[in-house]
Amino acid sequence: MNLLIYKTLEELNQDLADYVIKIAEMAIEENDRFNFVLTGGNSPKALYNFLATECKDRIDWEKVYFFFGDERNVPADDANYNGLMAKKALFEGLGTAEDHIFYIDTNLAPEKAAIEYKKALDKHFEGSDIVFDLILLGMGDDAHTASIFPHTSLVKDEEATVAAVFVEKLNTYRISLTAPLINKAENIAFLVFGEGKAEALKHVIGDEQKDVDTYPSQLIDPIDGKLTWFVDEAATKLLEN
Ligand SMILES: O=C1O[C@H](COP(=O)(O)O)[C@@H](O)[C@H](O)[C@H]1O
């Protein structure tokens, strides 16, 4: 595990963008495509804007396929739909073709949406193992990642798949990649900043004894890939040296 700490969010996003571009270049060089899983929420908006503007000419974006680590069970035109956030912040700027974006279809019932998403992934990876080049993850202040929330069935899901989960504290369904599927990736990067994440980060990174039910982000531990944390100083303020 590699922990990178930045003074400002601007520095963090610039470095994370360089990292995305570097992995994209390697994947395109090797396989002529880059399979990139996006995180949702608010944290990645500035990064996505930066990629869509400052990094627009740095790689051949037509070789990039975009996926989502999780989705909220809301219509595609709802401001909380992760796909809409990415569309506005990233895809519109890059002019990404629709057939390179793998949205999670929330017109379907959550379980069906999860099944259909897994089918779409299997098709894209042509029946072989689903191994993403890069998965970008966020972490909530309750230590959830993707939509693997504390004390939910997804924490214990041992199948490398896509699943629907009812999150009681939000009184809603989510659709999410499971931790075993995430952990197959070549590269996983967490984007975490702000004081509000400090308590969760202290436990997720700092605790010797794991408690994945309470801190699901502790589940993220790539099998063969690399894990890098991009965090700001505020988020690390409770970490012991
Ligand atoms: O609900 C969600 O939250 C997490 C964390 O979001 P953040 O804005 O606090 O970083 C996010 O990773 C996930 O994709 C999203 O659906």
UniProtKB/TrEMBL annotation:
Domain Glucosamine/galactosamine-6-phosphate isomerase: from-to ranges: 9-229
Keywords carried by this UniProt record: Hydrolase
InterPro entries from the UniProt entry: 6-phosphogluconolactonase_DevB, 6PGL, Glc/Gal-6P_isomerase, NagB/RpiA_transferase-like
Pathway(s) annotated for this protein in UniProt: Carbohydrate degradation; pentose phosphate pathway; D-ribulose 5-phosphate from D-glucose 6-phosphate (oxidative stage): step 2/3
Enzyme Commission number(s) of this protein: 3.1.1.31
EC class name: hydrolase
Domain of life where this protein originates: Bacteria
CDD domains per the UniProt record, alphabetical: 6PGL (cd01400)
UniProt family annotation: Belongs to the glucosamine/galactosamine-6-phosphate isomerase family. 6-phosphogluconolactonase subfamily.
Catalytic reactions of this protein: 6-phospho-D-glucono-1,5-lactone + H2O = 6-phospho-D-gluconate + H(+)
GO molecular function list: 6-phosphogluconolactonase activity
Name recorded for this polypeptide: 6-phosphogluconolactonase
Cited function: Hydrolysis of 6-phosphogluconolactone to 6-phosphogluconate.
Hydrolase keyword on record: yes
